[in-house]
Write a structure and sequence with these properties.
Distance between the termini: 30 Å
InterPro entries: Glyco_hydro/deAcase_b/a-brl, NODB_dom, Polysacch_Deacetylase
GO molecular function, one term: hydrolase activity, acting on carbon-nitrogen (but not peptide) bonds
Order of helices and strands: HHEEHHEHEHEHEHHHHHEHEHEEHH
Largest sheet: 6 strands, parallel
Shape: globular
Keywords: Signal
Number of strands: 10
Radius of gyration: 20 Å
Bound molecules: zinc ion
Protein name: Polysaccharide deacetylase
Organism: Pseudomonas lini
Strand content: 5-15%
Length: 333
């Protein structure tokens, strides 16, 4: 392990276990952001999946570590704390998008460790075959669906003036995966319509990518999971005019109210992007709280419509001491 990583791990651990650390985190809450839990850890280790995916072993390791150092609470227990005071800092888990693997791979482990979580749904995807473009494009380019599908997609990308970088043919798996990550990030500048058309060119997976409403209700009935909205189409809010923005917020809000018993009064911005105009619209739709992606910890004094979160990658889940380093950075007064 690199010296820098070792220092981060050690100082993060010392911080969590020191009187100073415990004092600074007293009454504070850490909100973690996850997306997917894959069926195996090796797949999640690759750079192009590492940020949004964790593997089951790493996730179980993270949960055990969290239980050791934190009170693992439902999100609302951080946002509207009850009367029970605890000496330990609180942590709440959130998952974005509404991936099917949240039910298949994440939930069994959440149940085993009795850790509550909140899942934020991009509601157009729930119960439909609609697909998230970065997953379909990424995996097709990664050869997960065969050479013919990959070649066809590369041709479509070329026609859009987005040729594949040569590094994507590198023999080294890590370098190839990293190049794919950068290429996918560069595609974010394409119009949503173009991204959808490219997604349509990718082969269908055997199972839908997203949860269906039956799964949502079953997870909710477990008492361990609650749900909130994360856009309807996952369009990035800052690019929308007022009318489309209101449509996205009310469509996702209505879907949650129809599909769940007790939807959360918390909005989760797609991609985390928001500004004053967007926060106002979200508040107008009766959401007193909203989650962003800016790192930090919650002390009850931050803007409730711009709540900070700390992202969990496969790397962090494997080495949760790195998380204590990031909490230390976020907790510094
Ligand atoms: Zn998202």
């Amino acid at each position: 392990m690199a010296i820098k990583q070792l220092l981060k791990r050690t100082s993060g651990w010392l911080y969590l276990n020191s009187p100073v650390g415990r004092h600074q985190l007293h009454g504070a809450g850490v909100i973690l952001m996850l997306h997917r839990v894959l069926a195996n850890d090796r797949a999640a280790d690759l750079p192009h999946r590492n940020e949004l995916c964790v593997g089951p072993k790493a996730f179980a390791h993270l949960l055990a570590w969290l239980k050791k150092h934190f009170d693992c609470v439902p999100l609302m227990e951080i946002l509207q704390p009850g009367s029970v005071r605890s000496e330990r800092p609180k942590v709440a888990l959130t998952f974005d998008d509404g991936w099917r693997d949240n039910a298949l791979n994440a939930f069994p482990l959440l149940k085993k460790y009795q850790v509550p979580a909140s899942i934020f749904l991009s509601t157009d995807f729930i119960g439909s075959r609609q697909r998230f473009w970065w997953e379909s494009l990424g995996e097709t380019l990664w050869h997960s669906h065969g050479e013919k599908a990959r070649a066809h997609l590369i041709e479509c990308l070329q026609q859009l003036g987005r040729p594949l970088p040569v590094l994507l043919d590198d023999l080294d798996v890590q370098r190839r995966s990293l190049a794919l990550l950068h290429f996918l990030q560069s595609l974010k500048s394409l119009a949503p319509g173009e991204l959808n058309r490219l997604t349509d060119q990718c082969p269908e997976e055997s199972l839908p990518q997203a949860l269906d409403w039956h799964q949502v209700r079953a997870l909710e009935a477990s008492g361990l999971i609650r749900f909130g909205p994360h856009g309807a189409s996952h369009a990035i809010f800052i690019g929308l005019d007022d009318q489309r923005l209101d449509e996205e917020i009310s469509r996702s809000r209505n879907a949650l109210h129809n599909g769940c018993n007790r939807p959360l009064p918390v909005y989760c911005y797609p991609n985390g992007d928001h500004d004053a105009r967007i926060r106002e619209h979200v508040a107008d739709h009766d959401f007193p709280f909203a989650l962003g992606t800016a790192p930090g910890i919650y002390r009850g004094i931050s803007d409730p419509l711009a709540l900070p979160r700390i992202g969990i990658s496969q790397r962090t889940a494997r080495n949760p001491e790195l998380l204590s380093w990031r909490i230390y950075r976020g907790a510094r007064p």
